[in-house]
Amino acid sequence: MGVSVPEANRPSLDAAPVAAGTGCTPVPGISLTIGRLRLETPLFLAPIAGHCDLPFRILCRELGGVGLASTDLLNSHAILRGSARTLELAATCDADSPCGMQLYGCGEDPLPEAACWAIDHGARLIDINMGCPVDKVAKKNGGSLLLRDCGATTLLAERIVRAVDRHAGGRVPVTAKVRLGWDPEHMVAPDLARRLEAIGIQAVTVHGRYTTQLFRGAADWGAIAQVVAAVHAIPVIGNGDISEPEHAAARMRESGCRGIMIGRAALRTPWLFAQTAAALRGGLASEPSLLEKLNVVLRHIDLLEQHTPIGSDSTHPHRHAVEQMHKRISWYGHTMGHVKPLKESIRTAPDLGAMRAVLQEWIERQSADHKQQQRS
Prior knowledge:
This protein is α/β, with parallel strands linked by helices. The chain contains 15 helices and ten strands. The protein has two domains: 7-280, TIM Barrel; 290-375, no CATH class. Helix 7 links the parallel strand 7 and strand 8.
């Protein structure tokens, strides 16, 4: 079942800059501007394939601190032929603003046309994926394979920039996400970033690893600093191994990058953006209590029910939402201490109602314990 975006839910390109998420208080002094798009914080939720769906993006925004969140990777051919699954991945709404849409493909693919489609369906920023190392992307000559031929990649990016500028009148920036290179013998990110800036790319995100590393080893923030030094004026967003609130400020000072993208750590701590934004403005990044974390999980279930497409199985219409929480509860559980019974109950729950019942029981117990502690 495809997901369409109602006209009323498509953010206007002429609207004033949008605060970063429902309930998010703008962080003074740490905003970031990309082209004509102003973000309230320099913190980005990475478009992790298969995980950063619309419910999760909204959850992170509601918790605060997110400057920009983007859709999952979108295949240009699938977008233009109206693939149901791709339309689901591209779905957005007012609560998911400003939203970026990330496209992947190569010079033979209709990326400029797909970028224009994305603008018409709510994208406030178009990002070109030049760094995904997974086979299903790289085998189609997209993602990290674009790092193998910087000249051809620059020409492709220029075609996309021109199409987007014509279509949106310069109101929607085009950015790129890269890795350092294919392997340590071919570090191309500084040179590629310089070329991309010259043809109109308005920001570059750099994951501080090589394609051959996948996610192994440590991200090289010294190499990210070389990318920062290579460009003239556009912001560089650093990505890799940001898992604690204090990491962002340290890495920004170390590398000179002007933004931070948070990926895998956000899957278990979606409140990390609010903590990091507080740390960037010199405040205290407090850890949520167990009771607060339980309420986050409960809210995530609500958002999955509201924004996950209904399946064709009438006996299990929310099967996909249930499966999502079956996977995600183990990540949340890593931050909650000794909650194995809770994780098992959620992991084996047959439906969303059963999950809510388990969480409500734990929430009531924690609330009672909290009140008892206050009295004593």
